[in-house]
Amino acid sequence: MLTEERRSRIVEIVNEKKAVSVNDLVDILDTSAATIRRDINALSRSRKIIKVFGGATALSSLDVKTDEDAVGMKAKLNVEEKDAIAKYAASLIQDQDFVYIDAGTTTLSMIDYIQNKKAKYITNGVVHAKKLIDKGLETIMIGGRLKPSTEAVVGPDCVEFIRKYHFSKAFMGTNGISVHAGFTTPDSDEAMIKTEAIRHAYMSYILADHSKFDQIASVTFAEIADCCIITDDMVGKEYQNKTVIKMCKE
Fold this sequence. Notes:
The protein is of the alpha/beta class. The protein is built from ten helices and 17 strands. 37% of the residues lie in helices and 25% in strands. It is elongated.
């Protein structure tokens, strides 16, 4: 059996059974365990299946989120954790920074702790822009279509706007973090904005409390290795091996 044919068959088996061990695949496909492990690694990297200890599971077995809570609802969740993350993130801003601040509840809390008035700030969050201005900070508001549920500016015009700039630091929100799926959001328009901001930033930080880990929304906007994660609790080695984790409690 050719490699591509065998790997296609593995995907079919995993999707059918939802979870399968290396030994099961060895018996079904009559090949070596080493070959099966190489196949699982390759298929996991291409996101056709999920590699787990001793075997693989189907992508469809995960609870993939396709919708998003309104800002008011999200603001009530994990308040203390978000506050600690926000305070730590704000402390990273230096005098010469040109800072991108993504829309989101944790990034909004971050503005409360910003002390640096020499840095410049740009955001796609309507409430974020107002808060930055009220603090007397030099602020640029990105133009585009307003998404009511997240109070964020999104759309192609927003992407084109961002392409003109280069940020020293970007502080981003996310709906989910997964070793396999990366950083995810339910909205394709927001994903485009996030991807572009990260692409144009020298250093990108994801602000995420512990509840965001091992969660997957429907659209990936960056790979795990693309950003440093600021969080409130220790995460597994599978994440630590992929990117830099900064603990706000340190």
